[in-house]
Amino acid sequence: MCRTNVAAKEAEIARFLSRFPRAADAGRGHPALQGCEDVRWSGFPECPAGIPVLLHSLLDRTAASEADRVLTNCLYNSISEMNVAVPVVLPFLIRLAGDPQVPVRSELLGHLVTFVEFSEPVDTEVEAMVLWFGSDSDHPERAQCRAVFAEHASAVAILAEELPSPDDRAKLLQAAGLG
User: Fold this and answer.
1) 76: three-class secondary structure by DSSP
2) Other beta carbons within 10 Å of 141
3) Cβ atoms of 94 and 145 closer than 8 Å
4) What is the per-residue pLDDT across 38-75, written as a single tens digit (0 to 9) for each?
5) Contact 89, 44 (CB under 8 A)
6) Strand 81-82 relative to strand 76-78, pairing
7) Whole-angstrom Cα distance, residue 39 to residue 75?
8) What's the burial of 60, exposed, middle or buried (CB within 10 Å: 0-12/13-18/19+)?
9) How many beta carbons lie within 10 A of that of residue 21, not counting itself?
10) Strands in 5-116 per DSSP E
11) Which of 54, 94, 159, 179 could serve as a FRET partner for 168 with CA atoms 20 to 30 Å apart?
12) Helices and strands of the chain, counted as H and E runs
């Protein structure tokens, strides 16, 4: 685990909370987030414990954009690698994206498409792809994400219809096993 990366993510969450101390209260009791506080987020490599704060804050009209930005930074370890906690956070994001009252709903839809792209299997025949993205055996979170999309296929199908891009709709439907 890269302690520096986790420390930086935790510090970013602390800065967020200092700017928006009550933001997490907005999502308390929201059915889409039921169980998010039960996850031991810090048990995932390079994942901060404050993920629930950010998820709840996505429902605060004032803080939602900043919560989305910080959450995004926490869910990627680099420009080519998502955090191994993404398969666990995906159900919460899918449910939130299905709620028209979520201020950053369109951003969440975009994140879902990005996570579909990050979870696609790497073609082992292309050495550069394996060097850049690593093998699928080294990144089981990819298959786990695909399983989450398939498990939530009915919700994903509804969300896909709201995407403006036909390519993005097709990606999301394919990830859910519907395309």
Assistant:
1) strand
2) 23
3) no
4) 999 999 999 999 999 999 999 999 999 999 999 999 99
5) no
6) antiparallel
7) 15
8) buried
9) 10
10) 76-78, 81-82
11) 54
12) 9, 2
Q: Judging by beta carbons within 10 Å of its beta carbon (0-12, 13-18, 19+), is residue 115 exposed, middle or buried?
A: buried
Q: What pLDDT band is residue 33 in, cutting at 50, 70 and 90? A: very high
- Cα–Cα distance for residue pair 23/159, rounded to 1 Å: 26
Is residue 141 a contact partner of residue 129, using CB atoms and an 8 Å limit?
Answer: no
Model confidence over 96-149: pLDDT tens digits?
A: 999 999 999 999 999 999 999 988 876 666 666 656 566 566 678 989 999 999
Length of the chain: 179
Token pair recorded at residue 172: 């999301």
The answer to whether residues 106 and 54 touch, using CB atoms and an 8 Å cutoff, is no
How many angstroms separate the Cα of 46 from the Cα of each of 39, 61, 124, 138, 174?
Answer: 15, 28, 26, 16, 29
**Beta-carbon contacts of residue 124 (< 8 Å; ≥ 6 apart):** 130, 135, 136
How far CA 165 is from CA of 3, 94, 101, 160, in Å, comes to: 38, 18, 22, 9
What is residue 134's DSSP assignment?
Answer: -
Say what the pLDDT of residue 15 is.
98
**Residue written as tokens 């709709």?**
169
Tokens of 116: 């579909």
